């Protein structure tokens, strides 16, 4: 029997790009909390001792960018002595949204053209690809132990990667390798890092999904042997460079648009959430084991320009039949998505999504993760 391998990665909240995602979404949260109709497209750049925040924002509220940036960096764990910390320089380069864009959004049209994908698969209870979920579970556990000082030597920057082995029937038959790079203090030895990480981080992360560390054929923990310099001091960060981490780990396709720093009128974000909502309800209904949904939009146009459903031969219904039911059940106009998924609620924190992923979360309640359209989908297909 032949076999193949699939790999996904995940990064910590202290990764340079993730710092920028969280700052951009913290700006969005600050705007929406006081003015739910804010138009926000915020980008962040971070490097040694410096953060630049720019973009287009139209809002009725005031946001103290300097304090917001420093508070978020401190929360993530960057303290003095790491080459980058909350006492960094901050430059604000924000201006208002272009009237050429806003005239299309004002009538309920999409804030931009583009394609968005969402997916679901029966590999985990949350209907997510296992490689991505295991990578995330490792990073979540590592971050928890770092912040609680159980691993006092660990610093905020980290990356995990999991490679799964599949047979030719698409069944997972094992874990081929786990890669984990953890930023650390000078004093800790590589042998001690490997020991503690395997025992305290990887083993419990795998156990959560019914996997045992003994299954793993290969470990690559801090494979260069040293990872002291990290964060924006070791590599620059930029909003939107971890779009695969944010979604499905490459298991499903991605339209290319980033999420963080964008208000819900930006279909890059809202329609990607809607596509996940659709795909999850299709798989959750039992009519398919795997599903990918593509949506597309034109700037200023209210209805999507296309809706595509792909079930990869795992459904007794045709993709066209399912797509027709989707069109009947889901309001996929930008304002329809905003309303259905409550994307402008003042108490909703987008910055939490920027830290540990936007899709398949089970630690927080997300509207696009609800299986609330199962019966409607079944009725639409059976009639």
Written account of the structure:
With 383 residues, the chain is an alpha+beta fold. The protein is built from 11 helices and 11 strands. The strands form 3 sheets. It has a 4-stranded mixed beta sheet with strand order 1-6-7-8. The two termini are 41 Å apart.
The averaged pLDDT comes out at 95
The geometry reads as flat
Largest sheet geometry: 4 strands, mixed
- The string of secondary-structure elements, in order, is EHEEHEHEHEEHEHEHEEHHHH
Q: Give the number of DSSP strands.
A: 11
SS class: alpha+beta
Radius of gyration computed on alpha carbons: 21 Å
Strand content: 15-25%
Multimerization state: single chain
How many angstroms separate the termini?
41 Å
Helices, by number, come to: 11
The side-by-side strand order for the widest beta sheet comes to 1-6-7-8
Helix percent reads 25-40%
Spans of at least 5 consecutive residues whose pLDDT stays below 50 are none
Please render the helix and strand layout as text.
Elements: E1 3-11, H1 16-34, E2 39-47, E3 50-58, H2 65-76, E4 89-95, H3 99-105, E5 114-121, H4 130-147, E6 154-167, E7 172-184, H5 190-207, E8 218-221, H6 231-234, E9 237-238, H7 267-284, E10 290-297, E11 306-310, H8 319-329, H9 334-340, H10 350-356, H11 374-382
Parallel strand pairs: 3-4, 7-8
Antiparallel strand pairs: 1-6, 2-3, 2-9, 5-10, 6-7, 10-11
Helix pairs in contact: 1-2, 1-10, 4-5, 8-11
Overview features:
383 residues, alpha+beta, 4-stranded mixed β-sheet, 11 helices, flat
């Amino acid at each position: 029997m032949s076999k193949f391998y699939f790999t996904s990665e995940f990064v910590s909240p202290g990764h340079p790009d993730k710092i920028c995602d969280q700052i951009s979404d913290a700006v969005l949260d600050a705007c929406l909390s006081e003015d739910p109709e804010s138009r926000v497209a915020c980008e962040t750049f971070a490097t040694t001792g410096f953060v630049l925040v720019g973009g287009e924002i139209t809002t009725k509220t005031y946001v103290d960018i300097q304090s917001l940036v420093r508070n978020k960096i401190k929360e993530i764990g960057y303290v003095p002595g790491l080459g980058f910390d909350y006492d960094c320089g901050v430059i604000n380069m924000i201006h208002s949204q272009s009237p050429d864009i806003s005239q299309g959004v004002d009538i309920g049209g999409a804030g931009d053209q583009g394609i968005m994908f969402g997916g679901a698969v029966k590999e985990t209870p949350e209907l997510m690809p296992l490689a991505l979920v295991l990578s995330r579970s490792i990073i979540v556990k590592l971050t928890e132990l770092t912040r609680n000082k159980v691993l006092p030597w660990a610093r905020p920057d980290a990356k995990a990667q999991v490679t799964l082995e599949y047979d030719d029937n698409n069944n997972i038959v094992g874990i081929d390798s786990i890669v984990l790079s953890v930023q650390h203090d000078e004093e800790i030895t590589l042998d001690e890092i490997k020991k503690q990480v395997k025992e305290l981080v990887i083993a419990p992360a795998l156990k959560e999904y019914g996997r045992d560390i003994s299954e793993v054929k290969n470990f690559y923990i801090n494979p260069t042997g040293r990872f002291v310099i990290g964060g924006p001091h070791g590599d620059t960060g930029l909003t939107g460079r971890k779009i695969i981490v944010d979604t499905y780990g490459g298991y499903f396709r991605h339209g290319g648009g980033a999420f963080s720093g964008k208000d819900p009128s930006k279909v890059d974000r809202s329609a990607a959430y809607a596509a996940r909502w659709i795909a999850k309800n299709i798989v959750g209904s039992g009519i398919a084991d795997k599903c990918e949904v593509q949506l597309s939009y034109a700037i200023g146009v209210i209805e999507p320009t296309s809706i595509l459903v792909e079930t990869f031969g795992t459904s007794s219904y045709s993709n066209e039949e399912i797509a027709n039911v989707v069109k009947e059940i889901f309001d996929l106009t930008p304002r329809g998505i905003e309303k259905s998924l409550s994307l402008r609620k003042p108490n909703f924190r987008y910055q939490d999504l920027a830290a540990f992923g936007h899709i398949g979360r089970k630690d927080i309640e997300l509207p696009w993760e609800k299986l609330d359209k199962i019966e409607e989908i079944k009725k639409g297909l059976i009639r």
